[in-house]
TrEMBL record:
<keyword id="KW-0645">Protease</keyword>
<dbReference type="Pfam" id="PF00877">
    <property type="entry name" value="NLPC_P60"/>
</dbReference>
<keyword id="KW-0788">Thiol protease</keyword>
<dbReference type="GO" id="GO:0006508">
    <property type="term" value="P:proteolysis"/>
</dbReference>
<keyword id="KW-0732">Signal</keyword>
<keyword id="KW-0378">Hydrolase</keyword>
<comment type="similarity">
    <text>Belongs to the peptidase C40 family.</text>
</comment>
<feature type="signal peptide">
    <location>
        <begin position="1"/>
        <end position="20"/>
    </location>
</feature>
<keyword id="KW-0449">Lipoprotein</keyword>
<feature type="domain" description="NlpC/P60">
    <location>
        <begin position="43"/>
        <end position="165"/>
    </location>
</feature>
<protein>
    <submittedName>
        <fullName>Lipoprotein</fullName>
    </submittedName>
</protein>
<dbReference type="InterPro" id="IPR038765">
    <property type="entry name" value="Papain-like_cys_pep_sf"/>
</dbReference>
<dbReference type="GO" id="GO:0008234">
    <property type="term" value="F:cysteine-type peptidase activity"/>
</dbReference>
<dbReference type="InterPro" id="IPR052062">
    <property type="entry name" value="Murein_DD/LD_carboxypeptidase"/>
</dbReference>
<dbReference type="InterPro" id="IPR000064">
    <property type="entry name" value="NLP_P60_dom"/>
</dbReference>
Length: 165
């Protein structure tokens, strides 16, 4: 009798556990930074750009780097613009900014460039605009990543944006 009660109790607990786990719904909050970045990627018009970014995402930052063992921001913009748009930019972000025709952030299109000055008044960082306020760049801390241009940290240091054409 004791064995039967024990078996019945064990079966009851297991069935409750199984049904409880089965009824759980897993959702991703659509307002997270990752979800918004994924949304920006899914809204790209150029499938070649999408593939280029996914192939480079996570490649570590290396000053002066120009390959997948490490790349810097201007090298990433240089390669992206050349491979995706057939545009040859200068190699250094400050020089890249000098060949870009100014556009307000509100008028940026996919593939336009955004320039930052983290260390004073000179341009020292570049990214490529995607859509919906997101851009891709080679971050010194996180490597190649899609980031939110509307973050205060970027808004404070954004010094120029525009297109090569």
């Amino acid at each position: 009798m004791m064995k039967t009660k024990y078996s019945f109790g064990l079966i009851l607990m297991l069935s409750l556990l199984i049904t409880a786990c089965g009824s759980r719904k897993y959702t991703v909050k659509s307002d997270t930074k990752a979800a918004k970045a994924a949304d920006a990627m899914s809204n790209l018009k150029s499938k070649q750009l999408y593939k280029f970014i996914t192939d480079w995402t996570g490649v570590k930052y290396r000053f002066g780097g120009l390959d997948k063992s490490g790349i810097d921001c201007s090298g990433f913009a240089f390669l992206l613009e050349k491979e995706i748009y057939g545009v040859t930019l200068p190699r250094i972000s400050r020089d890249q900014a000098s060949v870009v025709k100014h556009k307000s952030v509100d008028n940026l299109k996919e593939g336009d460039l955004v320039f930052f000055s983290f260390g004073g008044s000179n341009v020292d960082h570049v990214g490529v605009y995607l859509n919906n306020g997101f851009f891709v760049h080679a971050s010194t801390n996180r490597g190649v990543i899609v980031d939110d241009l509307n973050l205060p940290a970027y808004q404070r240091v954004l010094v120029k944006s525009g297109s090569v054409n």
